[in-house]
Amino acid sequence: MNRNLPLAVTNPAKLMQAAVLLIEDDKRLGQITAELLDDDYRVEWALDGHSARRKMDGTNYDAAIVDRHLPDMDGLDLVRGIRALGISTPMLMLTALSGTDDIVEGLDGGANDYLTKPFRFEELDARLRAMLRGYQAQRHSYLIGDWIFFEAIETVESPTGERKQLTSAETALLTVMADNPSHVFTRGELLRAAFRPDAGESTVDAYVSYIRQKTCKDIILTVRGRGYALGHPEEGIA
């Protein structure tokens, strides 16, 4: 769960709660939903798609709730755009469209779950909890070729069982890439997702090098003219 987020927090205990971005243009519904969620989550609220994109560019959220009909764009287009950036934050879509085709389109477009309006808050809360449980379970470990990456303990294990300890920054970078193993990341994308916004793009190159030195050169591939992609190293070949 993301702990170091630039969300306004006055109660230190809330730092242990999941961070949720609510994207809802209906001010009355948005306020009510945000207030109800506030007991169990750190909630930020965006009224339109463009402000939501700006928030997600600078903050790692544990989940997002996205209204399908936003004033400046289709919420599904927002989800597709976020997925195209390699961001795997679980997203629950809210919509008045209840047809099977609409639900399938939303799920195929990158939403993790779909809830039709009007809805009971208890169901929204239950779906959000289930979505977070599934996401955290998936994030427990990753298979990268013959290597195993354990995010929670910041460790990678070689095919021979040797474990290498990673730093927090190395873990953050490898997690972003392991969450989206088929995506080619630009340096800018990795910089926004894993490091401070004011760090230079050379920071990405440096930490890619550090990870390769601890594991093998093929764990992260250089894609000429584009950036980096997760590799598929076999038998720990350096």
What's the short story on this structure?
This protein is of the alpha/beta class and 238 residues long.
- What proportion of the residues form beta strands (DSSP E)? 15-25%
In whole angstroms, the N-to-C terminal distance is 32 Å
Give the overall average pLDDT: 85
Shape: elongated
Radius of gyration: 19 Å
Count every helix, treating DSSP H or I runs of 4 or more residues as helices.
8
Order of helices and strands: EHEHEHEHEHEEEEHHHEE
User: Which strands sit side by side, in order, in the main sheet?
Assistant: 2-1-3-4-5
Segments where pLDDT lies below 50 for 5+ residues? 1-10
Q: Largest sheet at a glance?
A: 5 strands, parallel
The amount of helix comes to 25-40%
User: How many strand elements?
Assistant: 11
The structure class reads alpha/beta
Q: How would you characterize this protein structure?
A:
- With about 240 residues, the chain is of the alpha/beta class.
- Helix content is about 40%, strand content about 20%.
- The chain contains eight helices and eleven strands.
- A five-stranded parallel sheet has the order 2-1-3-4-5, sandwiched between helices. A four-stranded antiparallel sheet has the order 6-7-8-9, with helices on one face.
- The longest helix is centred in the middle third of the chain and has 18 residues, at about 120-140.
- The chain is elongated, with a radius of gyration of 19 Å.
- The protein starts with 17 loop residues before the first strand and ends in an 8-residue tail after the last strand.
